[in-house]
Amino acid sequence: MVSNENVTPDAKPRCFWCGDDPQYIHYHDSEWGYPVDDDRRLFEKVCLEGFQSGLSWLTILRKRENFRAAFDNFDIEKVARYDERDVDRLLADKGIVRHKGKIAATINNAQRAIELRDEFGTLAAYFWQFEPTQDERPDVKDEATLRKLAQTEASQKLAKDMKKRGWKFFGPTTAYAFMQAMGLVNDHTEDCFAHQKAEEARKSFAPPQPK
Asked: What is the mean pLDDT of residues 43-52?
């Protein structure tokens, strides 16, 4: 049974967290939970999840186009070459979250991303090796379960490995949010209309393999 708070103005049942904000609804319906193998999108999401720390995702989502403009559309090679002038430019940009530590982490992570691509061929090949098997997945069927779920064994493994490789602002909770958003898991609740769509997308998706 679907609770009233999960039904948005167009009468479609959705996950509780997207509320009734049009931008959030569009993100939920068209992006969240669908598998991604594009390196630029994966890198962008890692960076934005880092900027979200201590804030809501909706705050970041509303600034996403500003972030894209400020960070050269998250072109990994360009961001990896940023210097102190770029840091100063970003700290003066009112359209993004102006946090020096998070800006520095983004530049660092671009450099680490290049190292990962050199080793695995693509970022996607690296990240998708952490996709949990069905037996490793928590049983996410309803809102109550999803509200309590902040991290998993798979997200802990991913965060631990990335920390070892020198990535910043990417702990197990951030890693799990990343995995949910990029489709490594399907955490649309079973009463959400997008659950089956995401599941079908995942079934037809071929996870990239390391070189």
From this structure: 96
**Which of the residues 49, 126, 131, 167 is marked catalytic?**
49
Beta strands in 61-122 (DSSP E): none
Q: Does the residue 94 lie in any domain?
A: yes
173-193, pLDDT tens digit by residue?
999 999 999 999 999 988 899
Give me the CATH number covering residue 190.
1.10.340.30
- Is 57 in the active site? yes
Structure tokens given for 171: 């702990």
Domain that holds residue 143: 36-203
SS (H, E, C) 147-210: HHCCCCHHHHHHHHHHHHCCCCCCCHHHHHHHHHHCCCCCCCCCCCCHHHHHHHHHHCCCCCCC
pLDDT, average across residues 137-146 = 65
Decide if 167 is catalytic.
no
Kindly state whether residue 92 falls inside one of the protein's structural domains. yes
